[in-house]
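Title: Comparing notes on inverse folding

I've been comparing how different people in this forum approach sequence design from structure. To keep things fair, I'm posting one structure and asking everyone to reply with a full sequence. Here's the target:
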C-alpha cells in the first residue's frame, strides 16, 4: 500500500531542509523536496522537484503539481547582512521573496486542501534573529513576518485539524555560515558552547508533524541553546 503520509519540504538539498527531509523519510514519510539546487538525497520515497522559489509563478505551479500532502515544512532560506546606510534593496527583496512570498504562494495552494481533508501540519523555519539584531534588519524583518503569517494561518484553520507553527533556531551549523555574503561576520555561539545542529531542529519539526502535537498551533518555538535565558 502506498505511503499515506506525504510531506513537502522546501530547501531540501542542504542544511535544515535536508535534515528535515531525511528525518521524515526515516520515519516512513514520503517527501517531495522543493529546491533549485540538485537533490542530495537518494531514497525511494523522496521525490525532488526542481523549482526556483524566487519565481512566484513557478512556485505556484510546482505547488499545484504536488499530490495531496499532509505536511508542509518551509526551510529554504538565505542570509544577507548589512548595517544602516549600506542596506541593499535587492537583498531585502531576495529574502522576502524566498522566506515569505514563496511559502505564502505554496500555502495558498496546500492549506485549503489540508483544511478540507481535516488534517495537516505546517512548520516554518524562522530565526531567533527575528527579535532583532544589529546588521540583520532585512533578514530579521522577513523572519518576523513568518511568525505573523503562521499565527494568522493557524487562526484560520485551528478548528479544521491543521496546525501551523514556527521553529526558530539560534545560530545553526549549515552551509549558510560559509556564505561569502556574510563577509567576515562570525556567528555568536549560544551558551551551550556550540552551534545548533540541523538534526536537532529536524527532531522538533518531526514532533510537530506528529499526532501527539495536535494541540500545539500558532507558536514560535525557539531552539536557542540557552541564548534566550538572560532576559
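Reply #1:
Here's my take.
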Amino acid at each position: 500500500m502506498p505511503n499515506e503520509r506525504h510531506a513537502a519540504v522546501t530547501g531540501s538539498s542542504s542544511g535544515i531542509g535536508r535534515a528535515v527531509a531525511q528525518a521524515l523519510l526515516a520515519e516512513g514519510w514520503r517527501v517531495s523536496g522543493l529546491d533549485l539546487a540538485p537533490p542530495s538525497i537518494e531514497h525511494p520515497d523522496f521525490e525532488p522537484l526542481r523549482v526556483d522559489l524566487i519565481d512566484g509563478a513557478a512556485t505556484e505551479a510546482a505547488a499545484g503539481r504536488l499530490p495531496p500532502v499532509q505536511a508542509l515544512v518551509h526551510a529554504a532560506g538565505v542570509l544577507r547582512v548589512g548595517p544602516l546606510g549600506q542596506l541593499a534593496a535587492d537583498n531585502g527583496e531576495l529574502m522576502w521573496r524566498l522566506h515569505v512570498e514563496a511559502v505564502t504562494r505554496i500555502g495558498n495552494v496546500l492549506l485549503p486542501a489540508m483544511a478540507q481533508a481535516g488534517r495537516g501540519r505546517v512548520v516554518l523555519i524562522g530565526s531567533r534573529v527575528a527579535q532583532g539584531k544589529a546588521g540583520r534588519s532585512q533578514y530579521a524583518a522577513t523572519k518576523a513576518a513568518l511568525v505573523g503569517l503562521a499565527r494568522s494561518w493557524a487562526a484560520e484553520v485551528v478548528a479544521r485539524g491543521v496546525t501551523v507553527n514556527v521553529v526558530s533556531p539560534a545560530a545553526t551549523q549549515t552551509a549558510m555560515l560559509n556564505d561569502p555574503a556574510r563577509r567576515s561576520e562570525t556567528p555568536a555561539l549560544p551558551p551551550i558552547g556550540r552551534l545548533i545542529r540541523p538534526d536537532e531542529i529536524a527532531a522538533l519539526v518531526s514532533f510537530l508533524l506528529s499526532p501527539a502535537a495536535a494541540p500545539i498551533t500558532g507558536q514560535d518555538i525557539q531552539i536557542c541553546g540557552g541564548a534566550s535565558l538572560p532576559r
